[in-house]
Amino acid sequence: MLRRGYNWILQFAGRPSAPWVLAAVSFAESSFFPLPPDPLFIAMLVDNKKAYLRLATMCTVTSVVGGFLGYYIGYALYETFGEWIIQTYGLEAAFEKLRGDFNQWGFWVIALKGLTPIPYKIVTIASGVSKLDMLTFVSASCIARGFRFFSLGALLYHFGEDIRMQLDKNLGLITALMFGALIFGFVIIKYWSTVTAFFSSLF
Q1: Which conformational region is residue 118 in: left (phi greater than 0), alpha (psi within -120 to 50 degrees), or beta?
Q2: Could you tell me which residues come within 8 angstroms of residue 182 by beta carbon, excluding any fewer than 6 positions away?
Q3: Distance between CA atoms of 72 and 97, rounded to whole angstroms?
């Protein structure tokens, strides 16, 4: 199902509606939608690398605004809609551990996890449940999401032609790698308690 979702999103890359679809996916991914905007973002920049500042800004803004919805779901709707989202992804145990981390490391939890393949919606919902300070939430979200999209955009701007050639030759492989990164993010958050316990034992 996720793979079909990727293919469905990518079909918009060359269409006039692509920026609107990109904004919608970036917004929704921060609160409930399972797929990130990166594949469409990359495909659009490969076609027009000069648009990277505009598209990176749009992704950052819509992702942070979408994060407010995720925060609200955790803050006011967790027992209904929020809990359903967490259960749908099978992340109940990891989510409880993540909530505990917010009490001590709220800013860094958002900033670091926002840069990784870990689903950002889990972070925003947990922020709301934990009633994290809004200024902390917004500032960390802007840093994390801005760095992610602008760094990716800069890479595509400077190496766009080489990337275009690789995409043309290995589109199936690259799509599979993106899909694998998404699954890897879900696995990390699902077993977050085990991961943190392991690293705690090292120090």
Answers
A1: beta
A2: 2, 34, 35, 36, 117
A3: 20
Instruction: Output the CA torsion 145→97→92→118 (10° steps).
Output: 30
Please name which of 79, 124, 92, 121 lies closest in space to residue 106, comparing C-alpha atoms.
124
DSSP per position, 110-126: HHHHTTSSS-HHHHHHH
Burial status of residue 102 (CB atoms within 10 A of its CB: 0-12, 13-18, 19 or more): buried
Quote the CA–CA distance of 66 and 49 in Å, as a whole number: 25
pLDDT tens over the chain, length 203 residues: 445 655 656 666 777 888 898 999 999 988 888 778 887 888 888 778 888 899 999 999 999 999 999 999 989 988 888 888 888 877 676 677 677 666 666 777 777 766 665 678 888 888 888 888 898 889 888 988 898 889 888 887 877 656 555 554 554 555 555 555 545 555 555 555 554 554 455 44
- Could you tell me the residue ranges of all domains in the chain? 2-202
Which residue has tokens 């690789």? Answer: 166
Q: What pTM value is reported for the model?
A: 0.72
b/e map 157-169, b = 16+ CB within 10 Å: eeebeebeeebee
